[in-house]
Amino acid sequence: MFKAIFAKELLENFASRRILMVLVLCLILVPLGVYVGGRDYQVRLHAYQESFRLYQQDHKTVEDILYKGGGKGFRPPSPFGFLSQGLDIIVPNIAESPATTRQKPPIDIRLNNNQSYENLYASFYGPLDLVFIVSVIMTFLAIVFSFGAVSGEKEQGTLRQILGNSVPRPTVILAKTAAHFSILVGAFLAAMILSLLVLIACGYSLAGPGGVLGETALALVLSILVIGAFLNLGLLVSALTRQAVSSFIILLLCWVFLFGVFPRLSVVMAQLISPVKSQQLLLQERNRVRLENEKARSVEIDKIVESGDNTQEKQDAVSAEFRAKLTQAFQKLDREQDNRQNAQMQLAVHISRLSPVSCFVRPMAEVARTGWMQFEQYRQDVGRFGAALDDQVYGQYQEFRQKGGSNVGFKGNGSAPAPVLQAGRIRTEDVVKNVLPDALLLVAFNLLFFTGAFVAFLRYDVR
Amino acid sequence: MSQQKLYLKADDLSKRYEDGVLALDHLNLEVRAGEVYCLLGANGAGKTTTINLFLNFIPPTTGTCFINGIDVTRDPLEAKKYVAFVSENVMLYGNFTARQNLDFFAKLGGKTGLAKEAYYQVMRRVSLQEKAFEQRVKTFSKGMRQKLGISIAIIKDALAILLDEPTAGLDPKAAEEFLEILTELKAEGKAILMSTHDIFRAKEIGDRVGIMKEGRLVLERTREELQYEDLVKIYIDYMKSEPLTA
User: Is the Cβ pair B55, A163 closer than 8 Å?
Assistant: First the structure.
């Protein structure tokens, strides 16, 4: 019985040419998106390698960094960027410290974002990556496929004809779910296999170091889960309504809300629940701390003057102490701001998880190494690079100057090579650990929607 | 007739819907093998409710339906093995051909592995044009759909057939052809329960005719009894009469 209904569903979708529509969309869009992403990676990889090569040509030693334009660290592009562009557009790809021969070395690493696009018009709509294809097109197709699965048959009267036979209702809904799932996932799998061939043709390797198979498999699992969630949601709404058109309108509203509104709303909600100080307010606070510090330092200096034991050394010591205190206070303010920002972002992430789309989009960026983990990793890499510059270039230069060296005679520590930004690699295991809660939530969405559809169908009035 | 096996039985069957409407009020009826029972009545008289109860689409408030002696409420799947159903507007899959529709419903009726020719034979039997066998059903007229609907009932080879106003909307020729098929099925020993508004055809084909009003079976006549009575007059009189009191 299951087989007969399963085959009927497939045949019906074939006959209505819906399968053709899905196949064409999948087989064109997915490989095209992957191809565009793969080509973009190659262009950016080439740009990265060229920039790095040119920089290294001129910056072989620490001396070069000091006298030839400062230190630069380049961020390599992610080979998995075809899966999701994620935060790539806003994460800087060059960390730069300006050349200086001042006594005091700079402590800030200047971040530049010089990402280039061949066609800026694309920035209005975002990239055609796998995340877009799955979260927009595949979820929409899931709705198109499922909205009439129950209500459409009810409307046509065929459900009455089916259930007039000795057919258990669970078999009907299971066969329908399995058939629709097979069509959508089958088409998507075919498109992914074609995409892998495209990647191989673009010069990617599947397995081994730098291989894309593992990450693509992870992306595939997440994609199937989100497609399944929307398919089951479609079946649930279809089993709760009596007319296909009502079912479609409700699902369209759900889709717009879950895809377009809720993830954005979660950010607004997080901002309201856990506000973060604005940059202006933070600046005012820093000024207040600075003024208080200055006032306290003046009081201390006055005390020294009044004590009659006023020496320049003592005043310098007090000034140094207050400078250190000010630095600490600023660092504390920055830490607090960072913590608040992190808390707000985490809250937004948690709230947005009520939508299956959010459980898919952010984890996909992590899988593609274009997400928050990569951003944090890059900040750490830059921090290490900055510390290395401080330690091996500017610190030594300061020491050299203190020992009476001229501002142009610094040679560094013998022939020590210039520090290079080492881009840290995020392990696949860490990504899996990070995306696991979202994957489990997607499983839960699937179970919840399917159980709802199952129960609703068992109680469905077929009259 | 009473020696024939009892395939359909409604025993003190009542149905009150959630909104309080009493759609069926203590109905008792029996349909035996080789018998056609016609249920006449206005809209809302309880004819379709009776069929819905036999198909377990709705649970009875009181009473029991039996198909081939099996309690429909207790074991609906077993009971439905012995019954085929043809509705007023036989709704089929428009994008499927006639044969594909027949194949699907045959499989649901437990008939698997049938050859193409077996489907063609059944469709020939109901006088469906040969060229329509492999045509998509969405191009079919109502008469053609009804023929395909009865083909589904035939191919299932069930003991009992439930027909919900099957001749409604058919032209006289199509209705006549439909009744001829029913006569053949009756001759094969099927028990047929047919709800209809068509008094003339009910008189023509029915071995027994029951008139329903406000959920009650108010009158039952055999074919023999109707030879001496004017069914049209009886029916109209009942329809005009005062509403029944609960």
Answer: yes
Confidence of residue A104 (pLDDT cuts 50, 70, 90): very low
Whether the CB of B50 is below 8 Å from some CB of chain A: the reply is no
* B61 and A CB contact within 8 Å: no
Q: Is residue B104 part of a domain?
A: no
Token pair 């009744």 in the structure block, residue:
B179
In angstroms, the CA A347 to CA A350 distance is 5
Pairwise CB contact (< 8 Å): B91 & A156? yes
How many other CB atoms are there within 10 angstroms of residue A230's CB atom?
30
Measured in residues, chain A has a length of 463
Distance CA A176, CA A10 (A): 9
Please state the domain count of chain B. 1
On whether the CB atoms of residues B58 and B48 are closer than 8 A, the answer is: no
Average pLDDT, chain A: 86
DSSP B121-169: HHHHHTT--GGGTTSBGGG--HHHHHHHHHHHHHHHT-SEEEEESTTTT
**Nearest one of A21, A26, A361, A372 to A225, comparing CA atoms:** A361
Nearest Cα residue in chain A from B50: A463
Could you tell me the CATH number of the domain that includes residue B160? Answer: 3.40.50.300
Q: What is the ipTM of this complex?
A: 0.89
Q: Where are the alpha helices (DSSP H) in A241-369?
A: 244-255, 262-273, 279-307, 312-352, 358-367
Q: Is residue A407 over pLDDT 70?
A: no
Q: Across the interface, do A157 and B109 touch by the CB < 8 Å criterion? A: no
Residue of B203, B129, B135, B142 whose CA lies nearest to B171: B142
- Token pair 């179970």 is found at A447
Asked if A428 and A214 count as a contact pair (C-beta separation under 8 A), the reply is yes
What domain range is B28 assigned to?
A: 6-88+154-240
Helix or strand holding residue A95 (H, E): strand A94-97
What kind and span of H or E run contains A393? none
Mean pLDDT of B189-202: 88
Q: Which residues pair with B83 in a beta bridge?
A: B160
Q: A62-66, A256-260, A425-429: lowest mean pLDDT where?
A: A62-66
The partner residues of B136 in beta bridges, in order of sequence, read: B97
- Supply the pTM of this predicted model: 0.84
Residues B181, A24: Cα–Cα separation, whole Å: 46
**Residue B132 within any structural domain of the chain:** no
Q: State whether A160 and B57 contact (CB < 8 Å).
A: yes
Non-local (6+) Cβ contacts of B204 within 8 A are B179
> In degrees to the nearest 10, what's the CA dihedral of A175, A179, A181, A186?
150
Evaluate whether residue B168 is within a structural domain: yes
User: Strand locations in chain B, DSSP E?
Assistant: 6-16, 22-32, 36-41, 62-67, 70-71, 83-86, 160-164, 191-196, 208-213, 216-222
Give the end-to-end CA distance of chain B in Å, rounded to a whole number. Answer: 33
